[in-house]
Structures are given as structure tokens and as C-alpha cells.
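[Discussion] Sanity-checking designs against the backbone

I'm trying to build intuition for which residues belong where. Below is a C-alpha cell string of 274 positions. I'd appreciate it if someone posts a full sequence so I can compare it with mine line by line.
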């Protein structure tokens, strides 16, 4: 038995070394994709407001209008398909067979970054102003309101755990050898008043702009339609998962913008994975 223990020790050391390396690689993978996702979000915001980026929503020489509309709708469709397919439980389960489950959300972030950058870089300008704020006060008011929408998006991610949503929590728990546990989604702050504050912020961010061109209008309209469709299917999944508790939440809380409710959700919580 002593001989067996002595001779098996090197193999144990090798396995432990491989396990540590695997955890480290997954952690680096998660940090890298978190960074890419964060940079992509910042770039998208600058892209929409024509701020300090080489390629924005209205930059470039306009070409054939029909071709531009076709390309742009194709890019938004690609964006929607990537988000929708990778958010499906069946796809997550399949992906977790190919890579460590802790890296699944980080892979989603990587794919989102690639698709979003592709959308921004390949977007075709469609000139022609629907509105354009000439007055500096109105211009700044629309710009600040639009940017505030994206601030709401960022803030709302922390209400449900920003680092879990962006995949960092999963890879850190994997690295430290701790089991992943689903978070308790507490209906606090913005979630008391709207069920999807991230989408509320997105609506504000894409519609409030000092200059609304035809291209920006196409983006805002198509993206709004995608959000509505996506949230519809997401809520069907949430009702299926949480049953009556989420049905009550729907009845007492507005979807995107707060309205008067007979009851509030001050002290409720729903255990969920986000």
C-alpha cells in the first residue's frame, strides 16, 4: 500500500497541476471577455451619439439606400439572433458540454462583443434628419437624457449583480473552487417600479438623441421591436420558472415605465439565476 501511495503521488500532482491551470485559464478567459463586453458597451454608446469614435451611426459616405437598409436590418437581426439563441436554456446546456459551465456566460459576453462591434463597424449611414436640436440648451438636454438612459442600464445591472450578469462571478467561483449558487433577485430600487429597468434605460438611450437621422431612427425602431419580442419570451420563461410569484409581480409592477399600481413590491424577492 505504501508503494502504491508513493508511486501514485506524481500522477496526483499532475492532475492537480492541470486542474489549477484549467481554473486559471477560465479565470483569464472570463476577465478578458468582461473587459471586451464593457468596452463594447462604451463603444456602442459613443457610436449612437457620434462621440469620439472612428465609426459612428451617422459617419461615412451614404450609398444605395435600399442596400443600406438591407445591410442594417441584417446586422440588427444578427444581433437579435445571437442574444436570443444564446439565452435559451437548451443552448446553455449544450454549450456547457463543450466548455466548463463557469465559462458559459463569458462566452456569451465574447459573442456579444463580436456581434456588436460588427454591427457598429458595418453599419451603413442613412442621412436625413428627422429632428436636429439647433438650440444648445435643447441639444445638451437631449444628449444628457440619452446618456442618462445608459447610466440606468449600468446601474440596473448592479441591482441584480453586475458581475454575475457579465460572467465574472462564475469564473471567480470556479477558480476558488466554490460551487455556483443562483442569486436571490431582490425586488428593490428600480425593480419596485418596473420589471425591466435595463430595457427602460436602453429605450431612453436609443431614442433620446440631439440628432435623429433616418439611420438612427431605423436602429431605434428595429432595436425597440427586438426588445419587445425578447422581453415577451423572457417573461414567458420567468412565469414558467417562478409561477404565481412572477404572475403577481406582473400584475403589480409596470414593464418598462412606472405607472400607478394598486400594490407595490417593496418586500418581495424571487430566487433566480440572472
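Best answer:
Here's mine. Compare freely.
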Amino acid at each position: 500500500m505504501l508503494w502504491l501511495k508513493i508511486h501514485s503521488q506524481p500522477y496526483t500532482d499532475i492532475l492537480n497541476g492541470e486542474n489549477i491551470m484549467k481554473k486559471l485559464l477560465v479565470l483569464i478567459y472570463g476577465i478578458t471577455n468582461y473587459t471586451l463586453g464593457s468596452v463594447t458597451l462604451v463603444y456602442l454608446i459613443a457610436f449612437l451619439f457620434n462621440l469620439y469614435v472612428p465609426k459612428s451611426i451617422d459617419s461615412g459616405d451614404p450609398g444605395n439606400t435600399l442596400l443600406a437598409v438591407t445591410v442594417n436590418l441584417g446586422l440588427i437581426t444578427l444581433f437579435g439572433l445571437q442574444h436570443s439563441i444564446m439565452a435559451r436554456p437548451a443552448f446553455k446546456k449544450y454549450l456547457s458540454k463543450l466548455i466548463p459551465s463557469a465559462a458559459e456566460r463569458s462566452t456569451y459576453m465574447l459573442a456579444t462583443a463580436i456581434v456588436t462591434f460588427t454591427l457598429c463597424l458595418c453599419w451603413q449611414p442613412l442621412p436625413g434628419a428627422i429632428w436636429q436640436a439647433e438650440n444648445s440648451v435643447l441639444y445638451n438636454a437631449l444628449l444628457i437624457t440619452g446618456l442618462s438612459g445608459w447610466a440606468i442600464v449600468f446601474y440596473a445591472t448592479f441591482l441584480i449583480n453586475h458581475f454575475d450578469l457579465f460572467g465574472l462571478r462564475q469564473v471567480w467561483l470556479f477558480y476558488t473552487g466554490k460551487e455556483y449558487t443562483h442569486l436571490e433577485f431582490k425586488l428593490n430600487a428600480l425593480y419596485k417600479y418596473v420589471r425591466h429597468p435595463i430595457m427602460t434605460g436602453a429605450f431612453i438611450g436609443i431614442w433620446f438623441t440631439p440628432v435623429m437621422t433616418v439611420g438612427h431612427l431605423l436602429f431605434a425602431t428595429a432595436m425597440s421591436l427586438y426588445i419587445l419580442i425578447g422581453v415577451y419570451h423572457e417573461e414567458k420563461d420567468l412565469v414558467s420558472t417562478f409561477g404565481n410569484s412572477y404572475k403577481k409581480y406582473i400584475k403589480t409592477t409596470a414593464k418598462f415605465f412606472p405607472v400607478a399600481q394598486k400594490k407595490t413590491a417593496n418586500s418581495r424577492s424571487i430566487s433566480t439565476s440572472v
